[in-house]
Each structure stands twice: as C-alpha cells, then as structure tokens.
Amino acid sequence: MKLDHIKTLEAFHEIIQLGSATAAARSLGLSQPAVSRLLAQFEAGLGFKLFHRSKGRLLPTSQALMLFEEVDLALQGIERVNVLARDLRQTNAGQLRVVAPPSFAEGPLVKLVASFLAEHPKIHINIDSRTRPTVMNLVATRTADCGFGKLPMDHPGIRLRPLVSSPTVCVLPPTHRLAKGRRPLGARDLAGEPLILVGHRGGDTRAQIAQAFQQAGVHPLVRLETRNVGAACALAAEGIGIAVVNELLSRHSLWTGVCIRPFEPAILQEYVFMSSANVRETPLTEAFYAHCRAQLAKPARAQARGRRAS
C-alpha cells in the first residue's frame, strides 16, 4: 500500500475516533487543511460522502461506520508488519534453520539454542541432524541458514567462520586409578588400559592419536570403537574403558559421574560455523553466530583460570 493511501486511511480513522478534522490533524501531526484534503480525496475516490457536518463536528454516515471496521483492521495489519520488520532488524523475530552432525546437535547445540531463545523468545528455530557431507550440501543450497562442522572440510558453496577449538581428553570413571590429579594423561599412562575410541580409523583425529602412541612406543589396547561421543562417555562411566574423545562434545554429554583429564600431546579439533557462500548472511544468522562463539568461549576461559589457579 502506498504511503499516501496509508495516510488517507489514518486520517479517516482518526476523524471517526475524535470527531473532527482539527483533532485528527493534531493526533497525526498534520495541518487541519491537510487532513481535510485527504478526506476529500478519499470521498472522491469512493464516490460517496463519509460525514455530515453538525455544529462543528463531523458525524459519520452508516457507510463510513461500516468502512471504519475494515480500515481499523487494515491499519492494525500494517502496524503488525512494522513491528515484525523492526523485530527482524533487531533479530527479535523470524525463523532460523540450523543443521549439524548428530554429535554436535545432541551436545553443544542444545545449550546454544536454549540460551539464544532465552534472549530472542520470538525466534522460531528448526534443527536438523545430518551426516557431515549432507550438512555441507544443505548449507550450500540454502536449505539450511547455517550449520556446524569440524575441520578439515572443503566445499565451494559454503563460507566457513571460526567457532571454537577443542582439545582431546580422556574420560574415565572417578574410581579409576588415573582419575586423581589434574595433569594430562599421555600414551604411556594409558599403556595396558582398555580404550574407547571415536570415529573411523582413517580419520584425522584417530591418526593423530595413533601417532601419539607410536611416538611413545606404546601399543594402544583398543577395546571398543564407536561413532558417538555420548556413547563413548557412557561406556566409560560403566567402566568399560577410557574414552579418548573431543573435549567439547564430552563436556556437553548428558552423562555425569565421569572424570575428564586432558590428553597429551595436545590434539586440537577446530569447529566452524557454516553459511552459504552465495548469499549474504541475514542479521539473525549473524546474531546466532556471535552468540554461539561467545557462549562456547566461556567454558574455555573458566577452565584456563582453573588451571592457572591449581
């Protein structure tokens, strides 16, 4: 609807409400002649009179009263559009489609989304959990607004932004002999211990873990392998073995009652935030990225303070 048409409807609405063009003009911040001109143009366009004059007041006709109900609804609709547009500019409303691998979607993403919704209660979020190649394709084709993944990855259709760097840790029952203390555990500490490893043997992290054991001259005793960090932590809690896993995912695992010790040498896993390389990110996607990066940095800062204090 054109701006002059909206002004015409507003002038008509205010005259009905207030009873005079002068009062309507004061309410709208216009001059009285301007309001009278808008009313005259409205009546000319409709082809019939909307008001009768009586002792300085404008009395609406029956047609005007019928028309008022529709005009009132129309102006309310315009106001809702304005409010929505303002909320979208301020990232207070809208829809966000997020995709991530199952381990991330069931782990860190839970608290990230919960805290973001607490700050933006009008946002609607759709979360999809897919394999790594599918995550990249969904983001590249804009089926999802954003996604999460772990380096290395290469796809011409996605934009990668740094998110968080996560070390590798050992997860073990609190009653285990290696659970005491805070120093990192190396391959020699784990010699003869049953291990639970995550991922496939040809993966980068598994290769780095194997290299650490080889350099220490220790043959790893792999008792169980899984693709799921949560399962690895749960099995460690049951005393099946020591899980050597990603610290970020173990931190957000639903399993409690375990001890987490750093693994040495440090094996870092770099997480990234993905969006389509073909379009500019929306303000809502930008806000979500900033929120996720800030939230994921908090535990790392707290842990660094704890290590310095010990």
Task: Write up what this structure looks like.
47% of the residues lie in helices and 24% in strands. It contains eleven helices and 13 strands. By secondary structure, it is an alpha/beta fold. α2 crosses α3 (32-46). The model is unreliable at 300-310 (pLDDT under 50). The protein is rod-shaped, with a radius of gyration of 31 Å. It folds into three domains: 3-89, Orthogonal Bundle (Arc Repressor Mutant, subunit A), CATH 1.10.10; 93-164 and 271-309, D-Maltodextrin-Binding Protein, domain 2, CATH 3.40.190.10; 168-267, Periplasmic binding protein-like II (D-Maltodextrin-Binding Protein, domain 2), CATH 3.40.190. The strands form three sheets. The protein has a six-stranded mixed β-sheet with strand order 8-12-7-11-9-10. The longest helix has 28 residues, at 62-89.
**What is the tally of helical segments?**
11
Binned, the helix content reads 40-55%
Question: Biggest sheet, open or closed, and with what strands and sense?
Answer: 6 strands, mixed
Strand content: 15-25%
Name given to the CATH architecture of the largest domain: 3-Layer(aba) Sandwich
| Element-level helix/strand string | HHHEEHEHHEHEEEEEHEHEHEEH
Could you say which overall geometry the principal axes of the C-alpha atoms support?
Answer: rod-shaped
Low-confidence stretches: 300-310
Mean pLDDT: 87
